[in-house]
Structures are given as structure tokens and as C-alpha cells.
Amino acid sequence: MKNRKEEYWSRFARSFEADQEYIAGKGNVQALVRKLHEEHDLKEVIELGCGTGRFTKEIAGNAKHIVTTDLSDEMLEVARIRLSSFPNVTVQKADCCRTSFRSAIFDTVFMVNLIHVIENPSDALRESYRILRNGGKLLIASGTNYGAKESDIRRRVTRYLKVWGMPPSSYQTSLSPDELASLVESAGFEVDVVQHVKLWLYLNATKK
């Protein structure tokens, strides 16, 4: 039986990629894509909250293998189709807060637009720490209104409500760089960099 969050996001699986670009703005999405293309030697990757795989394909060329996961069956159905041409990508269902993977088996944990929409981000970060090898990388991109112009915030909110309706109650729309870094450090990571890339907070951290 689906929980409310899974039901909420599953409704938008067929239009998710186009909806994201409409809400965020094409230029903002392309800025994130360019930043992701700078990441190299990601090795064995797990992606948490992959949605329909929009950003999975942007890092696939720089990874040995990616296990890309989501909680929504509907999202995963679309992701399997969209990622079928990538032989190094495996799509499977998983709860980002309680995966079934063994400890210390991945080199990179990757998540886009996940940490600010889940009820217990600390649980997802602790799980990320558990399944990463020592020296492994945590890579997060999270949309935020922190520091944005009021006009840009109003436009994004209007677009969001138009296509997706009211967001889940846990939605953190204005996560700051310091708040994100604090969450990550509390899970045991050492933050290497956290910066704005257009509307995204972009964070790299290491499991020491």
C-alpha cells in the first residue's frame, strides 16, 4: 500500500520531466546539467529518489555502474524506459531511508531534489553514510528559494501549484547552504563544498 508521499509523486510520473523544467525554468535545469557533467570517476553509484531518471543519464557516462532507485513504481516504470539505452544503469525500487543494500558497497551516493521533500532527511543521510565506502562521495543537488528574488519565487510557486498542487507538508522550500551542510555533517560526512548553482544548492561531501 502506497503512503501519501508515494501517491503524491506517482501521479506525475508521465509528465515529471517536463513539469520539472517548466517549474524550475529550462536555463536553471541546464545549469545543473552542466555542473553534473563536471563530475568524474564516480565509480559505483547509487542514486536515491531518481524520479524518471532525468539526471541519472547526465552522470551515466562518468560512472562505472549506477543503481538508480525510487519509491514510486510509476516513476520507475518511466525511468526503465528512458534509461534502457544505458547498459551501466540498473533501475530498482528502494526506500532512501531504509535500503536493503549491504554497508560500504558504493563509491558515490547521488540525489537530486530529494533532501528537501522527505520527512526525515537525516535518516536518508545516515543511510547514505552506511552504504558508502570510506572515502566515498555524497553528491546532492537540491532546489531552494533561499537567496532568490521575490519575483522568481512567486513565478516558481505559481507554476508548481498549477501543475502539482499543494506540496507535501515536509517540503522545505528555503533550505540554506548552512542548513544543508549542517544536516550532512550531522550524519558524519565532511562537507567539501556547498554552493549555489542557479536555484540549486550543490553539495559535495566525503565519508571519512
Please report the distance between the alpha carbons of the first and last residues: 38 Å
Q: Mind telling me which CATH architecture this is?
A: 3-Layer(aba) Sandwich
Question: Approximately how much beta-strand content do the residues carry?
Answer: 25-35%
The structural domain count equals 1
Query: Compute the gyration radius: what is it?
Result: 16 Å
Q: Percent range for helical residues? A: 25-40%
Low-pLDDT regions: none
Please describe what this structure looks like.
With 208 residues, this protein is α/β, with parallel strands linked by helices. It has helices spanning 4-10, 16-24, 26-36, 56-59, 73-82, 121-131, 150-164, 177-186; strands at residues 43-47, 63-70, 89-93, 106-112, 132-143, 190-197, 200-206. A seven-stranded mixed β-sheet has the order 3-2-1-4-5-7-6, with helices on both faces. The chain is globular, with a radius of gyration of 16 Å.
For this entry, give a set of tags.
seven-stranded mixed β-sheet, 7 strands, 208 residues, single chain, alpha/beta, Rossmann fold
Secondary-structure blueprint:
Elements: H1 4-10, H2 16-24, H3 26-36, E1 43-47, H4 56-59, E2 63-70, H5 73-82, E3 89-93, E4 106-112, H6 121-131, E5 132-143, H7 150-164, H8 177-186, E6 190-197, E7 200-206
Parallel strand pairs: 1-2, 1-4, 2-3, 4-5
Antiparallel strand pairs: 5-7, 6-7
Provide a concise account of the structure shown.
The protein has 208 residues and is α/β, with parallel strands linked by helices.
